[in-house]
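Limitations

Structures in this collection are predictions, not experimental determinations, and the ligand pose is part of the prediction. Treat each record accordingly. The example that follows, with iron/sulfur cluster as the small molecule, is included so readers can see exactly what is and is not provided: the inputs are given verbatim, and the output is the predicted complex.
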Amino acid sequence: MIIDDVPEGQYPVVVVGTGFGSLFFVHRQLQLQPAAKILMLERGPFRSWETQVSEGYNSPIRGRDTFKSTGVPKPWNFTIAYGGGTNCWGATTPRMHPNDLQLRTLYGRGQDWPIAYDELEPYYATAEQIMDISGPDDLHQISPRSQPYPQPPHRLSAADRVMKQAQPDMHFALPSARSRVATKQRPQCCASFDCEHCPIGAKFTAHNGFSHILESPNVLILMEADVMELERSSPSTVSGVRFRRHGREQRVGCDLCLLGANAIHSPAILLRSGFDHPLLGRGLNEQLGFTVEVLLDGLDNLDGSTISTGANYSLYDGPFRAERAATFIVFDNHFPFGLRKEFGRWRQTLSVRATMAEELDDKNGVSVDERGDAVVHHVGNSSYTERALDHFLEDLPKVLGPLPIEKIVPKGRRRSQSHVQGTLRMGAGPADSVIDSGQIHHQVRNLVVVGTSVLPTCPPVPPSLTAAALSLRAADLLFG
Ligand SMILES: Cc1cc2nc3c(=O)[nH]c(=O)nc-3n(C[C@H](O)[C@H](O)[C@H](O)COP(=O)(O)OP(=O)(O)OC[C@H]3O[C@@H](n4cnc5c(N)ncnc54)[C@H](O)[C@@H]3O)c2cc1C
Ligand code: SF4
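Predicted complex:
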């Protein structure tokens, strides 16, 4: 329930942020402890979905205005509002490949996750149920699954169908939280291609998926509360949370603190609070994205049932990962470069997007300046990722071999993938990470970190389903 003000008392659980990481944790805690009293502090405003659609933007606070940048210029995108990234996201939801969690052991790169895929699998399944994800069950070959997808896969486009026929073990329908069939909360996706402000509410958001959290009298949600610092009563205990609201500084006490303010602002809050660790704020990353237009010869495309329909794993996993990054390939079902101009051939086009995993580089990261403002420093992509891009461009004609191709036109790098990750990584111990395998801070044992900041390596796939699954698991470990 949204509240107007909060008494300065003691709260059993204080949650910072209301995005993916926080909401999935709170959802699971409420299942296990229906009477739990939870206070959520959110920096942004509450914006109904109708307001977001009619005004054409998710939040009046632009993410890029909330931090400063140095180094190689690069956008880092996120939403500051109730629901965080559940508002703006495109709702693409593949799981990670099991080998993504063992990069060090298998390929000598990065670090292993402190948990195995099998441990995460049941939580993936639950997160998929909560978001009513549409996907193909034969994707089991890539990422094993214990349960079928809650919704059938989206209809493949003509280009996907040719690829699926020729490469049944490599080409699949792309899983997404864009409804294939209507549910009580969401109509069927109608492929109208403006997912950031889906005009019909077909994708999962905090608004349509977690309304019970908004309505719960036990969950107090205070909007426009900008958390500045966590206060500690001893080196191992957070005792309170300090925030600024409408020009006034306030404090609440907490027994447990859940930090889910995104991978730029969560580390900034800890740095302002005097937390110290060589990896705190380090390793900010996202995938490198590249787009290609494929002109098709005689194949009318763009007849899939949602904005992006195909996932190709040909360049995803193998011994090559010792030398260059994994690449995940998506077939779009829309036309960012326009339709063909030739008479009768307007649909003979395909947009292909590749995302190359990035290696965490401690030179990329978040710090705070003398005013306490977040400062992002970026040095550019690693050679590991650049090599993957070179190979992608070389290998693409072979990967797309089954298609009737007139021409492949590289369109260039995407400025951002809109995934912000890796600044409070999880790991086996304090030497390699900030938080443990249960997402509890190694030293401060009543501080839990959630969201994509905890990812210790960069998967080539989008991260939010994984962040959701991790939050469900963290809540289970604490309260189950
Ligand atoms: C345009 C776009 C498209 C995307 N598409 C996809 C996709 O298709 N698939 C996918 O997996 N991911 C996608 N993402 C990424 C996805 O949004 C993020 O991975 C996800 O939201 C991260 O979850 P989080 O909990 O770490 O942070 P968020 O969801 O961003 O939540 C952080 C919350 O903390 C709040 N906050 C920040 N600072 C403070 C503070 N000081 N005090 C209080 N509250 C604070 C924020 O307002 C926000 O509510 C997309 C992102 C964008 C921008
Ligand atoms: S493709 Fe269209 S209907 Fe489907 S989620 Fe995106 S905007 Fe909504």
